[in-house]
Amino acid sequence: MAAILQIRDLKKTYDGGFQALKGVTLDIEEGEILALLGPNGAGKTTLISTICGITVPTSGSASVSGHDILRDFRQARMEIGLVPQEINLEPFSIVEDNLHFSRGLFGKPRDPAVVEKVLKQLSLWDKRRSRVHELSGGMKRRVLIGKALAHEPRVLFLDEPTAGVDVALRKDMWETVDQLKADGVTIILTTHYIEEAEAMADRVAVIRKGEILMVEPKAELMRRLGRKELRIDLREPLAAVPEALGAYDLALAADGLALTYSYDTQAERTGIAGLMRALSDNGIVLKDIQTRQSSLEDIFVDLVAEEEGEDA
């Protein structure tokens, strides 16, 4: 697929010398969902704000559908929908008026059919004549998404879109995101609910201290960095891991009734067969065995921790 968003060596230094972006280079392909993950202060919101024209970059370039964000600002911005973290709606405004107004800001003609479609997608049609202050926090978040979609953008930025949203509304939102992707909309997502990124994203980019650490297809990342854990429940507690099992990567539970063995699923040998023999040879009786695959959250935490360690 062709890159609809191209970012080249983008830097942003604020007054006072703080460098929020340190040469970010990234291609985002048309029609994909990219999860942009990083700890607080990593530069996620600054990157989004820069591409959307809210913040001016210090150097570097970015283009959306071939339109440079500085030279062709208006055309580039027309291609983008932005759902910010903050709920910044006029409390006494009518729900559907927000969408009509947002559409007008981008020079699009009034089109009740488009607004109706977006409101129905977001399960807001029954609330279309309600005032914003009458809505729950989750419904207000939906109105923000509706405003971002009203001018029919090709690229949608979702900056923590489900913050403060209950489980049922969150599920509805991700169904909407899935439909938007099916309609060809490119979506860049930041979220603290990493399980959502794991479920939705095609690719994952990790940013830390203004730098992109890696960009990789989600499935490939999980295959390459993922690992499995074998949990072994014991019939009798152990005071410590026997010295004879020291060759294995074993962790003993606090109550002594379980051992956890971490292993690489891509290795030629997992070592499980040898471990089972060693347990039997040492008179350790098993009660149950279960495995667990690393989640994207595990991988993310480990990756950031590893980078933090290198900086120390």
Automatic annotation (TrEMBL):
Keywords of the record: ATP-binding, Nucleotide-binding, Transport
UniProt superkingdom: Bacteria
Keyword Nucleotide-binding belongs to the record: yes
Keyword Flavoprotein: no
MF GO annotations: ATP binding; ATP hydrolysis activity
SMART domains on file: AAA (SM00382)
Pfam family, one: ABC_tran
SUPFAM superfamilies: P-loop containing nucleoside triphosphate hydrolases (SSF52540)
PANTHER family listed in its UniProt record: ABC TRANSPORTER ATP-BINDING PROTEIN (PTHR42711)
Name of the molecule in the record: Putative ABC transporter ATP-binding protein YadG
Organism: Pseudooceanicola algae
Lineage, top ranks: Bacteria, Pseudomonadati, Pseudomonadota, Alphaproteobacteria, Rhodobacterales
